[in-house]
Design a protein that fits this description.
The protein contains nine helices and 13 strands. By secondary structure, it is α/β, with parallel strands linked by helices. The strands form three sheets. The chain has a seven-stranded mixed β-sheet with strand order 3-2-1-6-7-12-13, sandwiched between helices. It has a four-stranded parallel β-sheet with strand order 9-10-8-11, with helices on both faces.
Length: 360
């Protein structure tokens, strides 16, 4: 039997997953290796084992499609995260069963693609003796130890396109238009899309906001003869002294589902300014579709370098971007803490310099 590796995708779907899969399969095939793909993330490692051979010849048909041909899940028996800083140990019997599957199939390594939760599971498998390599994925771009995660640029492109479209409607009807985007603990999507799409106010989890501050920017624009306003709000943004806005549903072993901050901001601004206001919630549109050019390249870099880590037997590490180069870092150094927007960052300084309200 030739050298064989495995790959799985965990957590939420996002553009670029299939690009990583195809790149890993292709780079492995160039070394004469075979790649097995596990279905439904880590659940595919458990009896009944669900996996399939990924032929190199078929990768061109999936390389730039959205989603993941291997399916994925962010719930189930392998849930390792339920909130910021809240790590959960996977039961030892599950880890041992997964390890047995890896050994039975003769895998040289298991490539685990995912965010903080999925990589936390990968770290636990590594500590149990499974040779794992990580690839960082999250549209929120909040994974520590890497400057960029794939899926983020595609999500920003989706949100920016939405802002471009909303602007014409806002201007035509003299409205306040509020766009709610993803970002539970980190405001990277809201900040980048807001800057790219010319938002007048950007509300992010890192900076608790006051409605008075947002009203001020609406009034200031009116004084300048501008009768419409664009507001971008991350789902995890909250009013100063207030709590996260949720949809009220609670599920075991999962974080509470956020929802409604955009509608609340829209309603408050309408009442306080007398302006007609509308809200658009992008939701899962940010996760769908094909990856952007940048994400395609980043996924190719991550996939090929992941195979290089396997060849070098550098297990327990993940690929990462540092200063526009691809390096490896211990998975343990990337999990358990989220990379939020620094309040003294160039993006924050630039937004303020442009007169964009951050709600404070």
């Amino acid at each position: 039997m030739s050298t064989r590796i495995g790959i799985l995708t965990g957590g939420g779907d996002c553009p670029g997953l299939n690009t990583v899969i195809a790149t890993v399969v292709t780079a492995a095939a160039k070394r004469g290796w075979e790649t097995l793909g596990f279905i439904d993330g880590y659940e595919g490692l458990i009896n009944p084992v669900r996996c399939m051979v990924l032929p190199h010849s078929e990768m061109e048909h999936v390389e730039y499609r959205g989603g993941t041909i291997l399916k994925t899940t962010n719930r189930g028996r392998f849930a390792a995260k339920v909130g910021q800083g809240q790590a959960v140990r996977v039961p030892e019997d599950l880890l041992d069963e997964a390890k047995s599957t890896v050994e039975y199939l003769g895998l040289k390594a298991l490539v685990c693609v995912g965010g903080d939760g999925s990589l936390s599971i990968a770290q636990q498998l590594f500590e149990r003796g499974v040779p794992v390599v990580g690839v960082p994925k999250t549209i929120d771009n909040d994974l520590d130890a890497t400057a960029w995660t794939f899926g983020f640029d595609s999500a920003v492109a989706c949100a920016t396109d939405a802002l471009d479209r909303l602007r014409t409607t806002a201007e035509s009807h003299d409205r306040v238009m509020v766009l709610e985007v993803m970002g539970r603990y980190a405001g990277w999507i809201a900040l980048y899309a807001g800057m790219a799409g010319g938002a007048d106010a950007i509300l992010i989890p890192e900076i608790p906001f006051s409605y008075d501050s947002v009203v001020d920017i609406v009034r200031a624009r009116e004084r300048d003869g501008l009768t419409y306003t664009i507001v971008v709000v991350a789902e995890g943004a909250r009013e100063r002294g207030g709590d996260l806005v949720t949809d009220g549903s609670v599920q075991a072993d999962r974080e509470v589902r956020l929802g409604g901050i955009g509608a609340r901001v829209s309603r408050e601004l309408a009442q306080r300014t007398g302006r007609e206001s509308r809200v658009v919630v992008l939701g899962h549109l940010q996760r769908g579709g094909s990856p952007t050019n940048f994400d395609r390249v980043l996924c190719s870099l991550y996939g090929t370098n992941a195979v290089e880590l396997v060849a070098a037997r550098t297990f327990g590490h993940m690929v990462a971007m540092h200063a526009w180069d691809i390096v490896s870092v211990p998975i343990a150094a990337a999990i358990g803490r989220l990379r939020t927007v620094p309040l003294d960052s160039a993006m924050i300084r630039s937004a303020r310099a442009l007169g964009i309200s951050l709600g404070d």
